[in-house]
Amino acid sequence: MSNKSNKWRIDFTNLSDQARRYEIRGQTYVVDAPPPPGFGASVPAITSSSKGNLKNRKDAQQVSTEKDQETLKIKKAWDAALSPGKNIPMNAFMLWMSGNGVQIFSVMITGMLFFQPIKALMGIDSVFERYESSKTKSQLIWPKLVYVILQLLTMALGLYKCSSMGLLPTATSDWLAFMEQKQILEYSAT
After folding, report:
1. Which terminus of the chain is less hemmed in, N or C, by CB atoms within 10 Å?
2. Where are the beta strands (DSSP E) in the chain?
3. Does the pTM of the predicted model rise above 0.85?
4. Which residue has the higher pLDDT, 19 or 82?
5. What gap in Å lies between CA 64 and CA 154, rounded to an integer?
6. Any bridge partners for residue 30, and if so which?
7. 114 by DSSP, 3-state: which?
């Protein structure tokens, strides 16, 4: 039992033979106390050569932090590029619910499908400017391209709705005013 209690016990009665010298920041200290528990004398002190290693470690950490930030910027740019695609199913459902008749609600929704993508395409630089840096500028081409494609897909959904409502001139009867009239060769009398 006494062995176990001595394991965690420090004897402060005989300190003179345990005097040690420590060098901290160029100053030497003599301490007449035993080292604290867990302290190892074999741990190297920070010297000028290890300070250089510390600087290299900080530089390496800074480089890895910059790479992590670039990776995060590209990831966020992809999130911004894919966000219009998340609205397409909702817009398609709204178009389906509005019906094919020419009514104020269906015309407003169809107009929204044209004006919002046009406004978004005009402001594409403001969407991606927070993700641009000298290193990420070349990597933002693909997210921008996907963003443009998804906005054009939203506009195509609006065109489909206009066609289903009969607002697009897709039939030959829509162009009768521009067709030449047939020349009548004979008249029959009754």
Report:
1. C
2. 20-24, 27-31
3. no
4. 82
5. 39
6. 21
7. helix
